[in-house]
Amino acid sequence: MPKMKTRKSAAKRYRVTAGGKIRYKKQGLRHILSKKSTKRKRRLRHTGILSAPEQKRARTLLPYS
Q1: 10-49 residue pLDDT tens
Q2: Which of these, 38, 39, 17, 41, lies nearest to 29 by C-alpha position?
Q3: I want to staple 61 with a disulfide (CB 3.0 to 4.6 A). Which of 7, 19, 20, 55 is the partner?
Q4: pTM of the predicted model as reported, rounded to 2 decimal places
Q5: Cβ-based neighbour number of residue 14 at 10 Å
Q6: What are the DSSP calls for 20-55, one per residue?
């Protein structure tokens, strides 16, 4: 049986933690930063964890995760 192909767009957006959860970089920190508060920008710096239904969807795109 051939190897399964990974969706490269998903591989660039998501990373799997040691515990099996899927991390992602939060959106909204690329441009137009002057109107956003310092507190908001600080929270956007940290990675987020996908919710359970979203993790299930992302695992179909990342077959070896």
Answers
A1: 999 999 999 999 999 999 999 999 999 999 999 999 999 9
A2: 41
A3: 7
A4: 0.84
A5: 20
A6: S-EEEEPSS-SS--TTS-HHHHHHHHSEEE--HHHH
